[in-house]
Design brief:
By secondary structure, the protein is α/β, with parallel strands linked by helices. The chain contains eight helices and nine strands. The strands form two sheets. A seven-stranded parallel β-sheet has the order 3-2-1-4-5-6-9, with helices on both faces. A two-stranded parallel sheet has the order 7-8. α1 crosses α8, α3 runs parallel beside α4 and α4 packs parallel to α5. The longest helix is centred in the middle third of the chain and has 28 residues. It is globular. The chain starts with 11 loop residues before the first strand and ends in a 7-residue tail after the last strand.
Length: 256
């Protein structure tokens, strides 16, 4: 199998949650591979900072201020990309959220924010990308940044509805694959499921406020954001007839 990113050079990619961590690493590597990348994020100033650092690379990064829990934001973002950059060829659904709560005494609003970001935001972005790809006859690629907790619930305090949201991503990946087959689309769909990754993800969600959780986290081996970005480029580099449906990545020594 010959791996190559050549067919994507100059094409348009959207990466959600591009302000830090995995999303920023993916955006950076796509720019280095020669793509025009729209980085969707609430903290768009962080994407703008990264864009400045990437000046002179083969591609270019554009910051687009988007809240993935708001459908109007997502629709406006896709409209901006189509008008300013052109039709999207690659969508990386990376935006994700975990909140500090539980199931037995849980905060309903926090549950909703998790599902709005991890499931509904992903579905809306996917729908809009498919519309553009169909209209422009593009055999594109959609990648969901999933998690190992989308396949097995860890024995870990306070995970609440987060694993359920990632199990939904696992189901949506297969459902979408079947739907593409049914309607005769050759758009690829891939789920990438990392284990523990060193990012701002848990801190940003205030998940480490519980000292018990913080202590358990410190004992885990970790992947780097760049490792996940490498895996995304691997998936994108496969020939048009090859679909990597699920890619699971764990750090060496991970027990679960």
């Amino acid at each position: 199998m010959v791996l190559s990113m050549d067919r994507w050079k100059g094409k348009v990619a959207i990466v959600t949650g591009a302000s830090a961590g995995i999303g920023a690493a993916i955006a950076e590597q796509l720019v280095e591979a020669g793509l025009q990348v729209a980085g969707f994020a609430r903290r768009s100033e962080r994407v703008e900072e990264l864009s400045k650092k990437l000046q002179g690379k083969k591609g270019k990064l554009y910051a687009v201020k988007i809240d993935m829990t708001k459908e109007d934001d997502i629709l406006k973002g896709f409209k901006w990309v189509s008008e300013k950059l052109g039709p999207v060829h690659i969508l990386v659904n990376n935006a994700g959220l975990i909140q500090q709560t539980n199931l037995t005494e849980g905060d309903t609003e926090k549950w909703k924010r998790i599902f709005d970001t991890n499931v509904l935001g992903l579905c809306i972005a996917t729908r809009e990308a498919v519309k553009v790809m169909k209209a422009n006859k593009i055999d594109g690629h959609i990648i969901h940044i999933n998690s190992i907790v989308g396949h097995r619930v860890p024995n870990f305090p306070g995970m609440n509805v987060y694993p359920a949201s990632k199990y939904a991503v696992t189901a949506l990946t297969e459902t979408l694959r079947q739907e593409f087959n049914h309607v005769g689309l050759k758009i690829k769909i891939t789920s990438v499921s990392p284990g523990a990754v060193t990012t701002e993800f848990l801190e940003a969600s205030n998940f480490l406020a519980d000292p018990t959780v913080s202590e358990q986290i410190k004992k885990l081996p970790f992947l780097k954001s760049e490792d996940i970005a490498d895996s995304v480029l691997y998936v994108l580099s496969t020939p048009p007839h090859v679909q990597v449906h699920e890619l699971t990545i764990k750090p060496v020594g991970e027990m679960s």
